[in-house]
Amino acid sequence: MTGNDAKKNYLKSVFFETPDYIPVSFCISPACYEAYPPEELFKLMECHPFLFPDFKAPDHFEPVYELNMRKDVPYRDDFGCIWKTMMNGIIGTVQEHPLEDWSAYETYVFPDPEKSNGLGPVNWEAFEEQVRCMRAAGHLTCGCLRHGHTFLQLCDLRGYENLLFDMMDEEPLLDDLVLKLEAFNMVQIRHFLKADVDMVQIPEDLGMQQGPMLSVDNFLRYIKPSYQRMIASVKEAGKIVHMHSDGDIRLLSDHLIESGVDLINLQDLVNGIDWIREKLQGRICVELDIDRQKITPYGTPDKAAFSNVYCSCETSTILPG
Protein backbone atom coordinates (compact mmCIF):
# COMPACT_ATOMS: atom_id res chain seq x y z
CA MET A 1 0.00 0.00 0.00
CA THR A 2 1.37 3.40 -0.97
CA GLY A 3 1.62 6.30 1.43
CA ASN A 4 -1.14 8.12 -0.41
CA ASP A 5 -3.51 5.14 -0.14
CA ALA A 6 -2.78 4.82 3.58
CA LYS A 7 -3.40 8.53 4.08
CA LYS A 8 -6.76 8.38 2.28
CA ASN A 9 -7.80 5.39 4.35
CA TYR A 10 -6.76 7.14 7.57
CA LEU A 11 -8.77 10.24 6.70
CA LYS A 12 -11.77 8.06 5.90
CA SER A 13 -11.50 6.67 9.43
CA VAL A 14 -11.32 10.11 11.00
CA PHE A 15 -14.32 11.44 9.12
CA PHE A 16 -16.61 8.38 9.36
CA GLU A 17 -16.35 7.58 5.65
CA THR A 18 -16.11 3.76 5.88
CA PRO A 19 -12.38 3.05 5.55
CA ASP A 20 -11.18 0.02 3.61
CA TYR A 21 -9.43 -1.26 6.73
CA ILE A 22 -8.84 -0.19 10.32
CA PRO A 23 -5.53 1.68 10.55
CA VAL A 24 -3.05 0.08 12.93
CA SER A 25 0.17 1.53 14.29
CA PHE A 26 2.71 -0.50 16.23
CA CYS A 27 6.00 0.57 17.75
CA ILE A 28 8.94 -0.95 19.57
CA SER A 29 9.59 0.77 22.87
CA PRO A 30 13.14 2.13 23.08
CA ALA A 31 13.52 0.24 26.35
CA CYS A 32 13.20 -3.05 24.43
CA TYR A 33 16.73 -2.55 23.14
CA GLU A 34 17.92 -2.79 26.73
CA ALA A 35 16.09 -6.07 27.31
CA TYR A 36 16.55 -7.89 23.99
CA PRO A 37 19.28 -8.11 21.34
CA PRO A 38 18.45 -5.56 18.63
CA GLU A 39 19.06 -8.10 15.87
CA GLU A 40 16.33 -10.34 17.30
CA LEU A 41 13.89 -7.43 17.40
CA PHE A 42 14.78 -6.60 13.81
CA LYS A 43 14.03 -10.18 12.76
CA LEU A 44 10.59 -9.88 14.31
CA MET A 45 9.99 -6.61 12.52
CA GLU A 46 11.04 -8.06 9.17
CA CYS A 47 8.67 -11.00 9.71
CA HIS A 48 5.69 -8.65 10.14
CA PRO A 49 5.62 -6.32 7.15
CA PHE A 50 2.00 -5.40 7.85
CA LEU A 51 3.06 -3.81 11.14
CA PHE A 52 6.44 -2.55 9.87
CA PRO A 53 6.07 -1.83 6.15
CA ASP A 54 9.31 -1.40 4.19
CA PHE A 55 11.45 -2.06 7.27
CA LYS A 56 15.04 -3.09 6.62
CA ALA A 57 17.44 -3.96 9.43
CA PRO A 58 20.40 -1.56 9.59
CA ASP A 59 23.94 -2.85 9.14
CA HIS A 60 24.95 -1.20 12.42
CA PHE A 61 22.71 -0.09 15.25
CA GLU A 62 23.30 1.83 18.44
CA PRO A 63 20.15 2.89 20.32
CA VAL A 64 19.85 6.63 20.79
CA TYR A 65 17.65 7.66 23.70
CA GLU A 66 15.85 10.93 24.16
CA LEU A 67 17.49 13.25 26.67
CA ASN A 68 14.91 12.46 29.36
CA MET A 69 15.25 8.69 28.78
CA ARG A 70 18.87 8.13 29.84
CA LYS A 71 19.55 6.10 32.96
CA ASP A 72 21.54 7.88 35.67
CA VAL A 73 21.92 11.00 33.51
CA PRO A 74 19.68 13.74 34.95
CA TYR A 75 18.46 16.12 32.26
CA ARG A 76 17.47 19.75 32.67
CA ASP A 77 14.99 20.66 29.96
CA ASP A 78 14.51 24.15 28.56
CA PHE A 79 11.83 24.93 31.15
CA GLY A 80 14.39 24.20 33.88
CA CYS A 81 12.78 20.91 34.98
CA ILE A 82 15.15 18.12 36.05
CA TRP A 83 14.25 14.68 34.66
CA LYS A 84 15.54 11.37 36.01
CA THR A 85 14.92 7.79 34.93
CA MET A 86 16.05 4.40 36.21
CA MET A 87 16.10 2.64 32.81
CA ASN A 88 17.35 3.63 29.39
CA GLY A 89 14.47 4.13 26.99
CA ILE A 90 11.88 4.87 29.68
CA ILE A 91 10.76 8.49 29.95
CA GLY A 92 11.82 9.83 33.32
CA THR A 93 9.91 11.90 35.82
CA VAL A 94 10.59 15.46 36.86
CA GLN A 95 12.36 15.42 40.22
CA GLU A 96 13.12 19.12 40.54
CA HIS A 97 10.56 21.82 39.76
CA PRO A 98 11.86 25.30 38.88
CA LEU A 99 8.74 27.03 40.25
CA GLU A 100 8.25 24.87 43.31
CA ASP A 101 8.30 28.14 45.25
CA TRP A 102 6.33 31.02 43.73
CA SER A 103 9.06 33.40 44.86
CA ALA A 104 11.04 32.25 41.81
CA TYR A 105 8.30 33.33 39.40
CA GLU A 106 9.24 37.01 39.20
CA THR A 107 12.60 36.21 37.60
CA TYR A 108 11.59 33.02 35.77
CA VAL A 109 12.18 33.11 32.00
CA PHE A 110 10.28 30.88 29.58
CA PRO A 111 12.25 29.15 26.83
CA ASP A 112 12.13 30.75 23.38
CA PRO A 113 9.50 28.83 21.34
CA GLU A 114 11.30 29.83 18.15
CA LYS A 115 14.28 27.80 19.29
CA SER A 116 12.85 25.17 21.65
CA ASN A 117 9.85 22.87 21.97
CA GLY A 118 10.32 22.88 25.73
CA LEU A 119 12.25 19.64 26.00
CA GLY A 120 15.07 20.65 23.70
CA PRO A 121 16.09 22.62 20.60
CA VAL A 122 13.89 22.74 17.50
CA ASN A 123 14.71 23.68 13.92
CA TRP A 124 11.55 24.97 12.26
CA GLU A 125 13.09 25.21 8.80
CA ALA A 126 14.09 21.54 9.00
CA PHE A 127 10.59 20.69 10.22
CA GLU A 128 9.00 22.43 7.25
CA GLU A 129 11.30 20.59 4.87
CA GLN A 130 10.42 17.26 6.48
CA VAL A 131 6.72 18.03 6.07
CA ARG A 132 7.24 18.93 2.40
CA CYS A 133 9.02 15.62 1.77
CA MET A 134 6.34 13.60 3.52
CA ARG A 135 3.57 15.42 1.66
CA ALA A 136 5.32 14.82 -1.66
CA ALA A 137 5.46 11.10 -0.84
CA GLY A 138 1.73 11.07 -0.11
CA HIS A 139 2.03 10.59 3.65
CA LEU A 140 -0.15 12.11 6.35
CA THR A 141 1.71 15.04 7.89
CA CYS A 142 1.52 15.99 11.56
CA GLY A 143 2.76 18.56 13.99
CA CYS A 144 2.88 17.42 17.60
CA LEU A 145 3.13 19.47 20.77
CA ARG A 146 5.42 17.90 23.34
CA HIS A 147 3.68 15.30 25.49
CA GLY A 148 2.36 17.13 28.54
CA HIS A 149 2.04 20.55 26.94
CA THR A 150 -0.35 22.16 29.46
CA PHE A 151 -1.54 20.36 32.60
CA LEU A 152 1.52 18.14 32.93
CA GLN A 153 3.82 21.06 32.17
CA LEU A 154 2.21 22.94 35.04
CA CYS A 155 2.85 19.88 37.23
CA ASP A 156 6.47 19.80 36.11
CA LEU A 157 6.93 23.49 36.86
CA ARG A 158 5.18 23.60 40.23
CA GLY A 159 5.00 19.98 41.39
CA TYR A 160 1.75 17.99 41.31
CA GLU A 161 0.60 18.64 44.88
CA ASN A 162 1.55 22.30 44.72
CA LEU A 163 -0.42 22.69 41.51
CA LEU A 164 -3.55 21.12 42.96
CA PHE A 165 -3.33 23.40 45.99
CA ASP A 166 -2.87 26.36 43.63
CA MET A 167 -6.07 25.42 41.84
CA MET A 168 -8.06 24.93 45.01
CA ASP A 169 -6.72 28.19 46.47
CA GLU A 170 -7.28 30.06 43.18
CA GLU A 171 -3.70 31.29 43.23
CA PRO A 172 -3.62 34.47 41.05
CA LEU A 173 -0.15 33.71 39.68
CA LEU A 174 -1.43 30.42 38.27
CA ASP A 175 -3.71 32.23 35.82
CA ASP A 176 -0.74 34.20 34.51
CA LEU A 177 1.39 31.05 34.26
CA VAL A 178 -1.30 29.23 32.27
CA LEU A 179 -1.59 32.12 29.80
CA LYS A 180 2.18 32.33 29.31
CA LEU A 181 2.35 28.58 28.77
CA GLU A 182 -0.49 28.80 26.26
CA ALA A 183 1.35 31.56 24.41
CA PHE A 184 4.40 29.31 24.20
CA ASN A 185 2.30 26.46 22.81
CA MET A 186 0.57 28.73 20.32
CA VAL A 187 3.89 29.62 18.70
CA GLN A 188 4.50 25.92 18.16
CA ILE A 189 1.03 25.50 16.66
CA ARG A 190 1.54 28.46 14.32
CA HIS A 191 4.68 26.81 12.99
CA PHE A 192 2.73 23.58 12.39
CA LEU A 193 0.10 25.51 10.47
CA LYS A 194 2.73 27.44 8.52
CA ALA A 195 4.13 24.08 7.42
CA ASP A 196 0.59 23.14 6.31
CA VAL A 197 0.39 19.87 8.22
CA ASP A 198 -2.73 17.71 7.92
CA MET A 199 -3.08 17.16 11.65
CA VAL A 200 -2.00 18.74 14.92
CA GLN A 201 -1.51 16.44 17.91
CA ILE A 202 -1.96 17.68 21.48
CA PRO A 203 -0.91 14.80 23.73
CA GLU A 204 -0.92 14.80 27.50
CA ASP A 205 -2.05 12.40 30.20
CA LEU A 206 -5.03 13.54 32.25
CA GLY A 207 -6.14 10.25 33.81
CA MET A 208 -5.08 8.01 36.66
CA GLN A 209 -5.99 4.37 37.26
CA GLN A 210 -9.32 5.61 38.56
CA GLY A 211 -10.56 9.03 37.54
CA PRO A 212 -8.71 12.09 36.21
CA MET A 213 -5.65 13.63 37.82
CA LEU A 214 -7.54 16.80 38.64
CA SER A 215 -11.15 17.56 39.44
CA VAL A 216 -13.58 18.30 36.62
CA ASP A 217 -14.16 21.77 38.09
CA ASN A 218 -10.45 22.58 38.01
CA PHE A 219 -10.14 21.19 34.49
CA LEU A 220 -12.94 23.52 33.39
CA ARG A 221 -11.43 26.47 35.25
CA TYR A 222 -7.77 26.20 34.26
CA ILE A 223 -7.21 23.72 31.42
CA LYS A 224 -10.21 23.54 29.10
CA PRO A 225 -10.20 27.26 28.13
CA SER A 226 -6.58 26.97 27.01
CA TYR A 227 -7.38 23.77 25.10
CA GLN A 228 -10.30 25.49 23.39
CA ARG A 229 -8.24 28.46 22.24
CA MET A 230 -5.41 26.29 20.89
CA ILE A 231 -7.82 23.91 19.18
CA ALA A 232 -9.82 26.78 17.68
CA SER A 233 -6.71 28.06 15.90
CA VAL A 234 -6.15 24.63 14.38
CA LYS A 235 -9.78 24.17 13.35
CA GLU A 236 -9.91 27.62 11.76
CA ALA A 237 -7.04 26.48 9.54
CA GLY A 238 -9.06 23.42 8.52
CA LYS A 239 -6.75 20.90 10.18
CA ILE A 240 -7.47 17.74 12.18
CA VAL A 241 -7.04 17.86 15.97
CA HIS A 242 -5.69 14.67 17.57
CA MET A 243 -5.82 14.34 21.36
CA HIS A 244 -4.06 11.68 23.44
CA SER A 245 -4.43 10.87 27.11
CA ASP A 246 -3.54 7.86 29.17
CA GLY A 247 -5.63 6.87 32.17
CA ASP A 248 -9.28 7.08 33.13
CA ILE A 249 -10.66 10.17 31.37
CA ARG A 250 -14.34 9.28 31.36
CA LEU A 251 -15.33 12.33 33.39
CA LEU A 252 -13.49 14.62 30.98
CA SER A 253 -14.48 13.05 27.66
CA ASP A 254 -17.46 15.30 26.95
CA HIS A 255 -15.37 18.39 27.60
CA LEU A 256 -12.59 17.20 25.28
CA ILE A 257 -15.11 16.58 22.50
CA GLU A 258 -16.74 19.97 23.13
CA SER A 259 -13.31 21.57 22.82
CA GLY A 260 -13.21 20.50 19.18
CA VAL A 261 -11.10 17.33 19.21
CA ASP A 262 -11.61 15.24 16.05
CA LEU A 263 -9.73 12.15 17.09
CA ILE A 264 -9.03 10.80 20.56
CA ASN A 265 -6.41 8.24 21.54
CA LEU A 266 -7.32 6.65 24.87
CA GLN A 267 -6.69 3.42 26.71
CA ASP A 268 -9.09 0.51 26.54
CA LEU A 269 -9.44 -1.37 29.82
CA VAL A 270 -8.93 1.53 32.22
CA ASN A 271 -11.88 3.33 30.58
CA GLY A 272 -13.79 0.18 29.68
CA ILE A 273 -14.58 -1.23 26.26
CA ASP A 274 -18.33 -1.09 26.84
CA TRP A 275 -18.14 2.50 28.11
CA ILE A 276 -16.09 3.58 25.08
CA ARG A 277 -18.61 2.02 22.72
CA GLU A 278 -21.66 3.39 24.51
CA LYS A 279 -20.24 6.87 25.12
CA LEU A 280 -18.11 7.62 22.08
CA GLN A 281 -19.38 5.56 19.15
CA GLY A 282 -20.63 7.84 16.41
CA ARG A 283 -19.45 11.00 18.22
CA ILE A 284 -15.71 10.99 17.65
CA CYS A 285 -13.11 8.85 15.93
CA VAL A 286 -11.31 6.62 18.43
CA GLU A 287 -7.71 5.44 18.36
CA LEU A 288 -7.63 2.68 20.92
CA ASP A 289 -4.54 1.81 22.91
CA ILE A 290 -4.23 -1.90 23.61
CA ASP A 291 -3.78 -2.45 27.36
CA ARG A 292 -0.13 -2.51 28.44
CA GLN A 293 -0.68 -3.60 32.03
CA LYS A 294 -2.15 -7.04 31.35
CA ILE A 295 -2.85 -7.74 27.67
CA THR A 296 0.47 -6.74 26.10
CA PRO A 297 2.80 -8.43 28.63
CA TYR A 298 0.64 -11.38 29.70
CA GLY A 299 -2.21 -11.72 27.20
CA THR A 300 -2.93 -14.61 24.87
CA PRO A 301 -4.97 -14.52 21.63
CA ASP A 302 -8.10 -15.72 23.44
CA LYS A 303 -7.71 -13.03 26.12
CA ALA A 304 -7.28 -10.38 23.43
CA ALA A 305 -10.53 -11.41 21.74
CA PHE A 306 -12.33 -8.69 23.70
CA SER A 307 -11.06 -6.18 21.16
CA ASN A 308 -12.61 -7.85 18.14
CA VAL A 309 -16.11 -6.67 18.96
CA TYR A 310 -15.06 -3.06 19.18
CA CYS A 311 -12.63 -3.26 16.29
CA SER A 312 -15.49 -4.18 13.99
CA CYS A 313 -16.95 -0.70 14.42
CA GLU A 314 -16.21 1.14 11.19
CA THR A 315 -15.92 4.48 12.97
CA SER A 316 -12.96 3.47 15.10
CA THR A 317 -9.26 3.20 14.56
CA ILE A 318 -6.84 1.28 16.72
CA LEU A 319 -3.41 2.39 17.78
CA PRO A 320 -1.56 -0.25 19.81
CA GLY A 321 1.18 1.52 21.71
Tell me what you see in this structure.
It is a single chain. This protein has about 325 residues and is an alpha/beta fold. About 40% of the residues lie in helices and about 10% in strands. The chain contains 13 helices and nine strands. The chain has helices at about 5-15, 30-35, 40-45, 125-135, 150-160, 160-170, 170-195, 215-235, 255-260, 270, 275-280, 295-300, 305-310; strands at about 75, 80-85, 95, 140-145, 200-205, 240-245, 265, 285-290, 315-320. The strands form two sheets. Strands 4-5-6-7-8-9 form a six-stranded parallel β-sheet, sandwiched between helices. Strands 1-2-3 form a three-stranded antiparallel β-sheet, with no helix packed on it. Helix 5 packs across helix 6. The chain is globular and about 55 Å long. Residues about 305-320 have low confidence and may be disordered.
List the helices and strands and how they pair.
Blueprint: H1 3-14, H2 32-35, H3 38-46, E1 75-76, E2 82-84, E3 93-96, H4 124-136, E4 142-144, H5 151-158, H6 160-169, H7 172-194, E5 199-203, H8 216-236, E6 240-244, H9 253-258, E7 263-267, H10 268-271, H11 273-280, E8 285-289, H12 295-298, H13 306-311, E9 316-318
Parallel strand pairs: 4-5, 5-6, 6-7, 7-8, 8-9
Antiparallel strand pairs: 1-2, 2-3
Helix pairs in contact: 5-6, 7-8
